[in-house]
Design goal:
Elements lengths: L1 E4 L5 E4 L29 H13 L3
C-alpha cells in the first residue's frame, strides 16, 4: 500500500496505475472509498477508458 504523509501527520492512501505521460487524479466523495474505481464493469466511463487504454497500448 502507498501512503503520502501530510505535514500534520495524516496519511493519504493512493494507487498509481497505468503508464505514460498523462496523469488523471480521481477523488471519491466522502461517502465512498477508492474501491468505487475498481468496479469498472459497473461504471461505463471507467470501462470505456480501460478499453481505450488497451486498444492504444496506454498512449
Amino acid at each position: 500500500m502507498s501512503y503520502l504523509t501530510l505535514s500534520d501527520g495524516q496519511k493519504l492512501y493512493y494507487e498509481d496505475k497505468g503508464r505514460g505521460p498523462d496523469t488523471l487524479v480521481m477523488l471519491h466523495g466522502w461517502t465512498s472509498s477508492h474501491e468505487v474505481y475498481s468496479q469498472a464493469e459497473k461504471n461505463p466511463w471507467l470501462s470505456a477508458a480501460q478499453t481505450a487504454e488497451k486498444e492504444t497500448g496506454g498512449v
